[in-house]
Amino acid sequence: MAEKQDPIRFGIMGCAEIARKISRAILLSPNAALVAVASRSIDKASQFAARNKLPENVKLYGSYGEVLDDPSVDAVYVPLPTALHLQWALAAAQKGKHLLLEKPTALDVKVLEEMLESCRRNGLQFMDGSMWYHHPRTAKMKELLSDSHVFGRLKAIHSSSSYHPPPHFLENDVRVKPELDALGALGDAGWYCIGAILWSMNQKLPTTVTALPDTAKNSAGVILTCSASMLWDDEETVATFFCSFLAHETMSLAVSASNGTLNVDDFIIPYEETAAGFSYTSGAKFTDLHIGWTVKPQHVRVETKLPQEALMIQEFSGLVRGVKYLGARPDTRWAETSRCTQLVMDAVKNSIDDGYKAIKM
């Protein structure tokens, strides 16, 4: 029984900036341990370890393959550029390593499905690195949205994810280079918007997806700004989103239903690490003479002992532990969530490339 309490041992493949946050999350998670970090050179791995004050027992490697060859590693976190995901995800699966893959997961759904099939074939847990799903606020919002008396039927959803980085980002960052992350803002920021919309719709794919003609690209053809609309025919629900590297920071989600509305301004990264909030209104009407409202928004605050990235690691590690020690099958819910997001992202990209025509799903 003692062995079954052992933490899930992580290796990190790549020292991107986001890996700093995840290394801390692994160290904070009660059922995970960081045992190895790899970069393209041992010097970079050593610099990463020193900068982040990693424990001395964390092994440092000068190539990604060395992490996969390490028998002490149960799972790998892969924050490499999207163009490299297929190569290293397949290599990880072949070595029996459970896979936490940074978003966007792939350049298109065919590539993602190849990775997911390799994980399925080898009995491995898959999850992408969308942290906000794991915050307790997200579960509380879902609880309210699912209450037909409070909200009724969903009618409209809007999400926005944008930020305005310094000039050197737009010139040199991985996310604006077509050979590394060809999806640009659509992949980096739009992934969250699409994911939040599909989360609101319980992962049901829209009937049609149409990009709007406001796309901006850099000289290499990488998307810097785009937006799109989605329609669900049966539900008579519409959604829109905006994502950009050229606008002020936004991380908003607004859901309008037949009897209520929900709004959150920081759904991707909460304003605070230890708590997060949102507001909702149910059954509101205008007062006589339309000089006010009969109901004011209710503000909900949800506290958490661990930051959302550590909760993601904790949940992923729990699933891996079930597979490793209890004979459980991998939870495919997370793979399907990634696949649905990728399908809609592909449709947006296809609509842009096809002159903003509607794409049937």
UniProtKB/TrEMBL annotation:
Query: Which SUPFAM superfamilies does the entry mention?
Result: Glyceraldehyde-3-phosphate dehydrogenase-like, C-terminal domain, NAD(P)-binding Rossmann-fold domains
The molecular function GO annotations come to:
nucleotide binding
- Signal peptide span per the entry? none
Which residue range or ranges hold the GFO/IDH/MocA-like oxidoreductase domain? 140-262
Q: Which residues form the Gfo/Idh/MocA-like oxidoreductase N-terminal domain?
A: 8-127
Listed InterPro entries: Gfo/Idh/MocA-like_OxRdtase_N, GFO_IDH_MocA-like_dom, NAD(P)-bd_dom_sf
Top-level taxon: Eukaryota
Q: Which family does it belong to?
A: Belongs to the Gfo/Idh/MocA family.
Protein name (record)? Gfo/Idh/MocA-like oxidoreductase N-terminal domain-containing protein
Q: Which organism is it from?
A: Salvia splendens
